[in-house]
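Field: sequence (string)
Field: structure_tokens (string)

Example rows 1 and 2, in order.
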Amino acid sequence: MSYEKVKQANRLSIGTKQTAKMIESGKAIEVFVAEDADPKLTAKIVSLCQKQGIPITYLDSMKQLGKACGIEVGAAVAAALNE
């Protein structure tokens, strides 16, 4: 289910730095986090989302999230962006 939500997003921001920027600028509407990602990488993103009230969807693995984003490598976090 969540895999499909990532694929359906019109615009995505992939990676912790880009995703953090999008959350801070108010452009992220939903954030996807890989369960197996290093918590050091994802903790800041999760706390930003909680502060801003942005829903977080967890996917099983970085590999799954990367694939859903259409990239060849794993991704720790990604954000669906508003237009």
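Row 2 begins here:
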Amino acid sequence: MYVVYYHNVVEGSVSEVDRRSSRLARDRFALQMSFLKEQFRVISLDEYWDRLQSDRTDPRCVSITFDDAYAGVGEVAAPLLA
């Protein structure tokens, strides 16, 4: 099982985003979400924790998290996650 965490997702292409920051461009985030959806079973953190505690880990599961509540998380990332 994996946990993939993000900091912020912003509008614009990758070339327009400061690559040294912790921001990720929307198009790059969308590409990563497509990959995760195709290759893994996306689960909630609650399910991740339950599986971990009951020794039911599965290398095909991934949980996606954000470490801050930047506007881009709600405005840019959330619609792609829905």
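free_text_note (row 2): The first strand starts at residue 2 and ends at 6.
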